[in-house]
# Entry
Amino acid sequence: MLRQALWSGRGAIIYQEKQVLLPERLDATFLTSAPNLRRCPPADAPEVAFAGRSNAGKSSVLNQLTGNRRTAKVSKTPGRTQLLNFFSVRQGGRLVDLPGYGYAKATLSAQQQWQKAVNQYLSYRDGLVGLVLVMDIRHPNQVFDQDMLNWSRDSELPIHILLNKADKLGRNAQQKVLSQMQRQYAEFPTASVQCFSAAKGDGKEQLIRVLLPWLATPIAAPEDPAN
# Structure
């Protein structure tokens, strides 16, 4: 069962329960990269952004989700994602890989430039409909993660916490962290949380169930500057 996003005609989104056969993966192809908001493609499709610390495994999550090891560049050196990377999803919408946060070996000016681009995208991107916040389940809820969650609550933007690298913990330990996070953010109406393993694919179906309604969100056509 999947909640399908529908446009009510009164400026609000409503949902309708619909039997849908979930795809095994999201078929995504690279669209473009942008160093800042001004260079982003037109905001004419719903976008789900992936954010997280540079060592949380964000690129590996995207590759597992799309079933393609080359969707996002994975490196043994964290922090290689330095641009806003856009991917078109065949099922509809776009995925956006944001630069990772907290890569200590990057220069301070580079970190500031990346974070400025991320902040502008999150604050002003009209097509942004949801955010996936990737955390290392062994080190969840860092200061950056808390800042992102507080911002999403204040902005009323749906956010899905992905506790990645769950394969590094036993089932009981996974459940303990999951329960702690669910309790801590129970008062955040737009937040949800799950365990995930980019290495093994555990939790991929649950993640796709979250993403498909977001990617089906109607987006108003960009205004014509000539009018």
Q: What stands out?
A: The first strand starts at residue 2 and ends at 7. The chain is about 30% helix and 25% strand. Confidence is low (pLDDT under 50) at residues 1-15, 75-80. The two ends are 42 Å apart (CA to CA).
